[in-house]
Structures are given as structure tokens and as C-alpha cells.
Amino acid sequence: MTRLYLPPSLTNFEEKHMVFSTWVDHMAFGYDLVAAIRPRMLVELGTHKGLSFFAFCQSMKEHGIDGVCYGVDTFEGDAHTDKYDETVFNAVQSHARQNYHGIAYLMRMFFNEALGHFSDGTVDLLHIDGLHTYEAVSEDFRNWYPKLRPGGIVLFHDVMARMNDFGAWRFWEETAPQHESFTFLHGFGLGVLRKPGGDRSADPELLHLLFDDPSPEAAARLRAFYVHACRALENARKVRRLEAQAQARAAAQAANAAKAPGGA
Ligand SMILES: C[S@@+](CC[C@H](N)C(=O)[O-])C[C@H]1O[C@@H](n2cnc3c(N)ncnc32)[C@H](O)[C@@H]1O
User: Fold this and answer.
1) Is 143 in the pocket of ligand 1 (CB under 6 A)?
2) Structural domain boundaries in the chain
3) Using a 6 Å cutoff on CB, does residue 130 contact ligand 1?
4) Which end of the chain is least crowded, N or C, by CB within 10 Å?
5) What is the reported pTM?
6) Is the CB of 166 under 6 A from ligand 1?
């Protein structure tokens, strides 16, 4: 009998930090991956307004994981995001302080400057989401791969984005076949790669689904699952928005009625 896959994004996840980002398509997966592998150390290269970062942090907190998340970014922007101003860093810092004390740490610096703060073989989950040229993604992977522990996981965003000088797709096409890997095709694409080694005996179900069944049918099922998970979160957001609008309208009507002659 096929087992049902029922990850926490299906039942428990209502995102606490929503900003515009193409990472929105992978929030459910990011939340589930953290719940599954329970990282003691997570490093994100490229945090910007914090959509992916806070999905990871939220999962850490809601699953009682004894670990920390580092978000590395100049918080100034790059050639693909364009330059942005201090309001971005201030908002991210304030959300981190209010919600993820002891979990979220922001490292406001270049990725290469942050390298020296991490020992080799210590990072459980690395998210590479900085500048998306072929050269930049290759450099980030080359520099940070030694920091991963054996069996550690790397995520690459934008592996399906082929506009302008985006080159994460080309890097991923070359790199994925040389590793245990899985590719989500929806949105701008998300690559998942596992470093060899580590203890596989207690692998969580999600890692089995990602890496242990190489059949196209199994991959298609997992991809479809996370397309639906992303749509379900989008629909839940719409419902909450409509409910809030309806409540605001009802409150305004009640206030007007109270002001009208003969009103309460
Ligand atoms: C695509 S955005 C990150 C998106 C984010 N993960 C999200 O969920 O929306 C890329 C970020 O990487 C930062 N960045 C790019 N190259 C960098 C580098 N070499 N050092 C530090 N920050 C960098 C930029 O400032 C920008 O905020």
C-alpha cells in the first residue's frame, strides 16, 4: 500500500512573514524540509526581504528545533534585485528580533566575508540565493560546499529562470547529475542537492522521497504535491484577505450606522 505523505505544511503552516518574492512558490517545501532534517545550523546566502529566511525560521521555532539560522546579505541589493534602501534591512531585522530571538542571526556583509565565520563540515542546510549569474552561483557553491557537513543539503533558487544573464539553470544542469539531487520545476525552480556521506539510517521521509526513488513517476508525484501545496497556501491567503476586507466593511457600516441620525 502507498503511504500518505502528510508533511506539516499541510496542516500547521500559516506564514507569518509575507513580502513579494518569487520564492513564494517554495515556502511549503522550505518549511517541510527544515521540519524533516531539523538543522542545527542553516545558512542562507541572499536574504533580501526575508521570505525564504523566515519560512525556515518559522519552521525551526514551530518544530522546537535546537538550531540557528544565519542570513547573509549586504542588504544593499545586486544587479538582479537592483539597489534597495535601508527600509529593507530595518524591516527584516525588526521581524527577526520580534519573532526569532535566539534563532535568526543576520550577517550584514558579503558572502566571502562571512566564510571565515563558519568551520568546515558544520552547516546542515545551505540556501544559495544571491546573484544568479553562472559565475556567481558557481563561486558561491565552490566556496561554501566545504562548510556543509557530510550528508548536508544545499538549495539553489532560480534553477529554471532563463531570462537575461541568469545562469543558475546552466550551473544546475552541469552540477545536479554529479550529485544526489532533485529539481522542482515550478515557479523559478528550486534545486536540492545532498553532499555524500553522513548517517542515512534515520533519514526522514522527505529525504527518501527526494533522493531514493529515481523513477520519473515518483519525481512527478513529489513535484505535483508541492505545486498543490503552494496553491493551497495562496488560496488560504486569499481567503484571509477577503475575510479581513469583509470585517473592515462590516465595521465601517456599523460605524456609519451609529453616526446616522437615530443611530445607536
Ligand atoms: C534574490 S535576492 C534573495 C531573495 C530571498 N532569498 C527571498 O526569499 O526573497 C538576492 C540577495 O542577495 C544579496 N547578494 C547578492 N550577492 C551578494 C554577495 N556577494 N554578498 C552578500 N549579499 C549578496 C543581494 O543583496 C540580495 O538581497
Assistant:
1) no
2) 8-215
3) yes
4) N
5) 0.94
6) no
Q: Which CATH architecture has domain 8-215?
A: 3-Layer(aba) Sandwich (3.40)
Please spell the DSSP secondary structure of the chain, one letter per residue: -PPP---HHHHT---S-----GGGGGHHHHHHHHHHH--SEEEEE--TT-HHHHHHHHHHHHTT---EEEEEE-SS--TTT----HHHHHHHHHHHHHH-TTTEEEEES-HHHHGGGS-TT-EEEEEE-S--SHHHHHHHHHHHGGGEEEEEEEEEE-TT--STT--HHHHHHHHGGGSEEEEE-STT-EEEEE-S-S--TT--HHHHHHHT---HHHHHHHHHHHHHHHHHHHHHHHHHHHHHHHHHHHHHHHHHHHHSTT--
Q: What is the largest CA-CA distance in the chain?
A: 77
Task: Render pLDDT for 188-234 as a digit per residue (tens, 0 to 9).
Answer: 999 999 999 999 998 999 999 999 998 999 999 999 999 999 999 99
